[in-house]
Amino acid sequence: MSKGGRPRKVGDAEKRLLRQLVEEMPLATLDEITEAFCTRTGLSVHHMTVRRRLDEMGIRREQATLPPPQGELEQRYGYRPAHRRQQPGQRYPSSLTDEEWRLVADIFESDGDRGTPPRYPRRLLVDACCYVVRSGCSWRMLPKDFPAWQNVYRTFRRWSQQGKFEQMHDRLRIQWREREGRTQMPSAAVLDAQSTRSSPQGGTSGYDAGKKVKGRKRHVLVDTLGLILAVSVTAASVQDRDGAHPVMANGMEKYA
Length: 256
Known about the structure:
It comes from Modicisalibacter zincidurans. By secondary structure, the protein is α+β, with helices and mostly antiparallel strands.
């Protein structure tokens, strides 16, 4: 009899059944134990009642502990040695390999012999541009084994206006799609926008009240593999529906 005078639903026989259920289902949750107990006994018992009776019998649920790792565990995130590998022709990990340069050399090399001969190899200038874009450093912080930063910056501006980097990206995207067994031109695309903080130097900026971010907003159009098709950068205050039109028009012009 309980202290209140009402007989317990879970007596000694029911406790033995509870112990048997725990032995049969060691990985079951408290609700599963309660459901199985009610099914076998025909009683209607709350799961807290079952928990108290299990505590009285000294049965408690404990978190399983994993055995100590044998040896050093492999890091599964961040950069690995494969990301930092350098082949003999590379100055830095961001530099193009010989095979990569062979695939895109015709984009940057000039046709014909007119004009002043180039002062620096085109591949060295491409590697310098890739170094700045990949590392995020300022142009003035280019390593000394690259050409003068003023020369690299002017070259980067000129090639960007000519669309050479975009041509290189389009060529790499086509190769990747062919590698995945897709057609060269995508038939479906996904559009999304992201607001990011920006530095006070240059460019338009605004305030995105929805995300509470002051800066710029990038509207990105990608294919079903996640490869970039078109990008548009606006102030963060521009609504997604308004910023979607330029990037969609650019994508339709190139791939429709």
